[in-house]
């Protein structure tokens, strides 16, 4: 085999070109026998070499040429490195300034005391840390690696950056942009196989170190990184991928997690953001400590196969997007929202439609499980929530809230479960004057053992409107009361904060079951019209099976009410449509759609 490096003690190396020129084939283990005598040292440009045998003393010329020079184990540059640097280049407040393309290798662990340890002012640069540690020694105003001057094609890999202190942008950040004007954009930045420990602000902060400028990154790829007690990975720009990263933060006041955001300039937006296979653990003290994983101001965004434990504002979230998919993610123990989606289209056309899909996700033991908000005069073209679980959250399981005058519709919730939450399982809320929510389908969903209504439609502000809502093959079971609700299975316009100035119409409950709830099975409030309950069952509820509390022109068709404590039916007006089940159902027929 042709060897690029040879050793007679496990550490020494011989330059590749010697062997290439000689065409030698032999084993490294033979070198000691071939070169039995060390004569003296010589110095070459890339290290100290040792003369081990004089020419002519060996048995043949080739052996003599090999043995003429052999390297010592100290100070030798790896053959893949263009340059090496160490403690003397960086320590004592020096800046190791990279101004030429090439691969720059760390030769040893480095501790420095002030300023930026390494500054990259050239494109086409790789910093190979070779498993070494760059440490600020917990000194104030220390930064690890700075990127500036619109550099492109920079890779930073295989090392540890730790104990950086200070505040943004002068300290406490492992890898940071360092720019001077608004026209500068970093391109194709790769950060991989890195660890960040005990830094006071952020692991990676490519988000505009000078807040007065417009700063962007066009293409960031961050992979196989971890951070302990070091804040967030933050990228602002046009496209970015973060994958297989772990963030373990327990510092109060530090913005944590992974945060990707579009450009800062006006209507500019990012093209593609992806966060996948990541874990964020947030164990905060007090204060507003930021989200676990969040994407905003992007055309196409995706968060996949991620877990956030702890966190707030929210644990997993998105805002200002055209298309967003969140799949196979878990959020546990968020201080506020496990999943929160806000203001689609921000940074785009103000009236742009956006699509949102959340599938196979779990929100557990947080304040609210899933909250989808529509606001700032933007709206969604479609919202799809599929096979998601909200369980044991302090307040709501699923919330759909319209806080703008723009109509919001086409919401599809399929195969979802709300279990053991502190208030309403599934809540649709019109929360602004003239806010309209329309065209909503709940299919094959279950609300069970929540301390509030199972399913609730409510209007919080006078003038709001909810219309054309379908509950199909849904179950509400064993839900109890709370300050937000009375404990109904299906509550349509009848809640503590429902106002008479709002209107709900066109609601259908098809083949649904409501049982063992603390109050009514199916409850319709004062402002409901043209609603219907068809082929549904209300049984063993503490209140009434089916009740219409002052609404008009509602229909109750082919339903069954059995063993409800207060009554099976109550409050059905003459203008309501009441149609019994077929007479061949014998004993059941007597209780079908019969007013008490």
Q: How would you characterize the overall build of this protein?
A:
- The chain is mainly beta and 596 residues long.
- Among the domains are: 16-71, no CATH class; 395-596.
- The protein is 4% helix and 46% strand.
- It is built from 4 helices and 53 strands.
- The strands form 2 sheets. The protein has a 50-stranded parallel beta sheet that branches.
- The radius of gyration is 33 Å and the shape is elongated.
- Mean pLDDT is 81; it is low at 1-77, 285-289 and 582-591.
Task: Report a brief summary of the structure.
This protein is mainly β and 596 residues long.
Number of strands: 53
Q: How does the major sheet shape up? A: 50 strands, parallel
Mean pLDDT: 81
- Provide the helix percentage: under 10%
Q: What is the strand content?
A: over 45%
Unreliable runs, pLDDT <50, ≥5 residues? 1-77, 285-289, 582-591
**End-to-end separation:** 95 Å
The computed structural class is mainly beta
Q: Specify the overall morphology.
A: elongated
Helix segment tally? 4
């Amino acid at each position: 085999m042709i060897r690029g490096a040879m050793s007679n003690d496990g550490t020494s190396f011989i330059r590749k070109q010697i062997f290439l020129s000689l065409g030698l084939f032999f084993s490294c283990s033979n070198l000691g026998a071939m070169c039995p005598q060390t004569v003296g040292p010589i110095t070459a440009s890339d290290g100290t070499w040792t003369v081990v045998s004089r020419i002519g003393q060996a048995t043949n010329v080739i052996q003599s040429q090999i043995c003429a020079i052999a390297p010592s184990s100290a100070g030798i540059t790896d053959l893949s490195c263009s340059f090496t640097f160490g403690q003397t280049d960086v320590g004592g407040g020096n800046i190791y300034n990279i101004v030429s393309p090439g691969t720059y290798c760390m030769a040893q662990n480095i501790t420095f005391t002030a300023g930026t340890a390494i500054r990259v002012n050239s494109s086409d640069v790789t910093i190979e840390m070779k498993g070494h540690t760059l440490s600020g020694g917990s000194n104030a105003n220390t930064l690890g690696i700075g990127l500036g001057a619109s550099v492109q094609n920079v890779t930073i890999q295989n090392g540890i950056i730790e104990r950086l202190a200070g505040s943004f942008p002068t300290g406490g950040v492992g890898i940071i942009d360092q720019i001077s004007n608004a026209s500068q954009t970093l391109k194709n930045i790769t950060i991989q196989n890195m660890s960040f420990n005990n830094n006071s602000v952020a692991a990676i902060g490519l988000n505009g170190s000078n807040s007065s400028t417009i700063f962007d990154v066009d293409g960031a790829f961050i992979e196989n990184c971890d951070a302990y007690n070091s804040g967030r990975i933050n990228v602002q720009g046009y496209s970015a991928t973060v994958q297989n990263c772990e963030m373990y933060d327990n510092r109060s006041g530090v913005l944590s997690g992974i945060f990707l955001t579009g450009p800062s300039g006006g209507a500019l937006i990012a093209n593609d953001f992806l966060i996948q296979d990541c874990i964020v653990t947030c164990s905060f003290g007090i204060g507003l400590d930021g989200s676990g994983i969040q994407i905003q101001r992007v055309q196409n965004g995706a968060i996949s196969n991620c877990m956030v434990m702890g966190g707030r504002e929210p644990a997993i979230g998105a805002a200002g997007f055209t298309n967003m998919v969140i799949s196979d993610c878990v959020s546990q123990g968020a201080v506020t929202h496990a999943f929160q989606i806000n203001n689609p289209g921000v940074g785009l056309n103000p009236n742009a439609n956006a699509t949102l899909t959340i599938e196979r996700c779990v929100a557990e033991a947080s304040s609210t499980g899933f909250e989808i908000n529509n606001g700032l005069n933007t709206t969604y073209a479609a919202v799809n929530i599929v096979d998601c679980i909200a369980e044991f959250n302090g307040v709501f399981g699923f919330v759909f809230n319209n806080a703008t005058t723009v109509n919001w519709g086409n919401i599809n919730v399929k195969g979802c479960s709300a279990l053991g939450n502190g208030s309403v399982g599934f809540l649709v809320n019109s929360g602004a004057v003239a806010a309209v929510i329309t065209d909503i389908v709940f299919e094959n969903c279950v609300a069970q053992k929540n301390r509030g209504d199972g399913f609730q439609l409510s209007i919080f502000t006078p003038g709001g409107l909810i219309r054309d809502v379908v509950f199909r093959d849904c179950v509400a079971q064993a839900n109890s009361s709370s300050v937000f609700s009375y404990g109904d299975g299906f509550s349509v316009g009848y809640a503590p904060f429902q106002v008479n100035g709002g209107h709900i119409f066109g609601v259908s409950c098809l083949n649904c079951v409501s049982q063992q709830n603390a109050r009514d099975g199916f409850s319709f409030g004062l402002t409901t019209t043209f609603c219907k309950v068809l082929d549904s069952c209300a049984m063993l509820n503490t209140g009434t099976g089916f009740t219409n509390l002052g609404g008009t022109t509602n229909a109750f068709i082919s339903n069954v009410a059995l063993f409800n404590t207060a009554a099976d039916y109550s409050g059905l007006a003459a203008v309501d449509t009441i149609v019994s089940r077929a007479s061949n159902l014998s004993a059941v027929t007597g209780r079908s759609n019969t007013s008490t």
